[in-house]
Amino acid sequence: TIRRGDVPLPLLSVFKVPVALAALDRAARERMPLSAPFDVGPERLDGNTYSPMRDSLPPEGGTVTLAGLIRYSISLSDNIACDRLLDFAGGPAAVEEYLRGAGIGGFRITASERTMHRATENQRLNTPPSAVCELFARLLRGGLLPAEYDVLLRSALEEAPTGANKLRAGLPGNVRLGHKTGSSDRTAEGVRIADNDAGYVLLPDGRSYCIAVFVTDSRETDGTNAYECFTRNDP
Question: Average pLDDT, stretch 210-220?
Fold first, then answer.
């Protein structure tokens, strides 16, 4: 069931999933191992954004493996790691091109994490939810990435500790959830532009489904927004 699936609701950090796919696709085509080191220079270590990776590096920066960047970006929603992967993928336009080439339509990817943090309204630039479900369904069918890269991405999605009170809260303990959350800042008027959770659910009997819950332009508390996410999740 898709409700408002054609409305260009903002992705926020959910867009890190197509970025990771595009980056891993390039790495696979270039036969780059997951242990390949990536430079993360001091010019990237913005102190005004969420980044546990930055906090783990010295002030002069350092190197992080490709696998490390994926885990930071997908599992921990690290903004600097995401932008490093986005640059490696070739930028927003290259991510859109990759998605179209993979037969996944509907995405609008124009902003990096750094761009989104320059102005609150920039957080509306990357869209929409219906394409997200298509992307996760395509990932579940397989064939987007070679096995080693696919296993890394799925494990990063399934091990993500973020959003424990969102989709995960609506699921019994015997199912597997691979997901990516995405939350915006609040505007000066107290409006949360987006509070999202999206991914796939693997049931014990072998069935699966994909779900994207996007709570947009909400004046409610974060707890109320999270409740909206997990109450929409009905296996």
Answer: 93
CA distance 185 to 29: 36
CA distance 49 to 24: 24
Go through 85-117 and write b for each residue having 16 or more CB atoms within 10 A of its CB, e for each that does not: bbebbeebebbbebbeebebebbebbbbbbebb
Q: How many CB atoms lie within 10 A of CB 80?
A: 25
| 184 carries an active-site annotation | no
Instruction: Please give the residue that has the higher pLDDT: either 229 or 119.
Output: 119
Q: 79-89 vs 16-29: helix axis angle to the nearest 10? A: 40
Selecting among 13, 130, 183, 218, the annotated active-site residue is: 13
- Quick check: 165 and 155 in contact, CB under 8 A? no
Average pLDDT, the chain: 93
The contacts found for 92-101 with CB under 8 angstroms, 24 or more apart, are 94/22, 95/18, 95/19, 95/22, 98/18, 98/21, 98/22, 98/25, 99/18, 99/21, 99/22, 99/131, 99/135
Q: Residue 12, Cα to own-chain centre: how many angstroms? A: 8
- Res 232 pLDDT > 70: no
